[in-house]
Amino acid sequence: MSRICFHQLSWCRSCKSRRSHTCVSTDADQDILKALSKTKIRVIISVPNNQLLAIGSSNTTAASWIGRNVVAYYPETLITAIAVGDEVLTTVPSSAPILIPAIESLYSALVAANLHTQIKISTPHAASIVLDPFPPSQAFFNQSLSSVMLPLLQFLSKTGSPLMMNLYPYYVFMQNKGVVPLDNSLFKPLTPSKEMVDPNTLLHYTNVIDAMIDAAYFSMKNLNVSDVVVLVTESGWPSKGDSKEPYANIDNADTYNSNLIKHVLDRGGTPFHPEITSSVYIYELFNEDLRSPPISEANWGLFNANTTPVYLLHVSGSGTFLANDTTNQTYCIAMDGVDSKTLQAALDWACGPGRANCSEVQPGEACYQPNNVKGHASYAFDSYYQKEGRSSGSCDFKGVAMITTTDPSHGSCIFPGSKKVSNQTKAIANTTQTSDAAADHRLRRFITLRVNQMSATTNALAFSILLLIIPFMILC
């Protein structure tokens, strides 16, 4: 599996300067580690579950693993952490007794190589190790795991390493439909009445992932550990699902991941720890085209297996995160749930001082129907957004607008940013296709790391492309 991160690793809290960087999480594969050499991309490498027994049983094996996968590549490949196994306590509980010995053996090998201060060691956990997660103040670790969790947390505290958690609001929503609103899961703006409130602390939660992170913090507090930071090693939203997964779609995936990035970059922390912003790794870079059903399992990626983008990540006020030269595929529309009075004020500004072309929403014109403020505002917003060249911040309108990759055109109403053309404008269509090909070529500059369950052909293609994800200026 390959994941990408949009934030400084969270244990780097002492540095004061701004840094521009990208980070990835991947298996310890020689081709990947070589490809990442001298890129300044921060890398977390993982130890497969099937190697835990050998490493935990032998210090020599652990030292050999560090030599082959870390010392041989560091510092040219900027390895910052090692993830020992993946959800071991819940997926392979028989390996639980060997988890701490494996971590300690690898740490001893890092000490011997004098790399223990540069490279941290931890292990990713499933969210299910936390019981009674809401309200967060009542959360606690599964007590049957205490023999592992307590010494693990003590080790993380001693070494300054993070608690790695795989957190998926998608599953929380799917398992609690009717209780957890979709808007809370997707970071959409909420009225105060829709915010989740912890009755014990009176802390207000506007999104699910903050509640999940704080549940982990309260669980650690119950074990008298308060100096370990949560690192979200997996989070994401599937872009396609079967008939039983109607919420696994491109719009929700784009909304979740884009808003997740913005939420992290806002550096607001969580209600319980506003001073700590957890790093988040998005799962995942590529769709896994050979995955077994359900369909959603194969569709968590930002890119298809053939390296074409599934959708474009956007953050209001920050432009496009995948490529600034592909924003011709995006539109600006009114958000759901905004009151008509607020939307009307934004519409009036767009058609007035904003000089958007609002002639098409006049009575009798193509976009007059549906005759409501949301429909008219969406057209005006997109007109202004396209007029401004889709520039950073041009789709905001005081928080009532959002960027989408879905063409909002309908019937004879063609939005300003739409690529739809009539048969009489074939030449324009040909020009558009050429532009699309150029944009696709530029998109191919992005990372292609190995992921599980991908075809051999896709794997070979993946190794051939260099990671050049646009770096972000993050205040560490």
TrEMBL record:
User: What cellular-component terms does GO give this entry?
Assistant: plasma membrane; side of membrane
- Where is the protein found, in the record's own terms? Cell membrane
Please, one GO biological process term?
carbohydrate metabolic process
Recall the GO molecular function terms of this protein's record: glucan endo-1,3-beta-D-glucosidase activity
**Protein's membrane topology:** Lipid-anchor; GPI-anchor
Q: What is its EC number?
A: 3.2.1.39
X8 domain: residues covered: 330-415
Source superkingdom: Eukaryota
Q: Does the UniProt entry include the keyword Plastid?
A: no
From the UniProt record, list the reaction(s) this protein catalyses: Hydrolysis of (1->3)-beta-D-glucosidic linkages in (1->3)-beta-D-glucans
Q: Which keywords, in A-to-Z order, does the entry hold?
A: Disulfide bond, Glycoprotein, Glycosidase, GPI-anchor, Hydrolase, Lipoprotein, Membrane, Plant defense, Signal, Transmembrane, Transmembrane helix
Q: Supply the SUPFAM superfamilies for this chain.
A: (Trans)glycosidases
The record's listing under SMART domains reads: X8 (SM00768)
Q: Report the transmembrane regions from the record.
A: 454-475
Query: What family is this protein classified in?
Result: Belongs to the glycosyl hydrolase 17 family.
What protein is this chain from?
Answer: glucan endo-1,3-beta-D-glucosidase
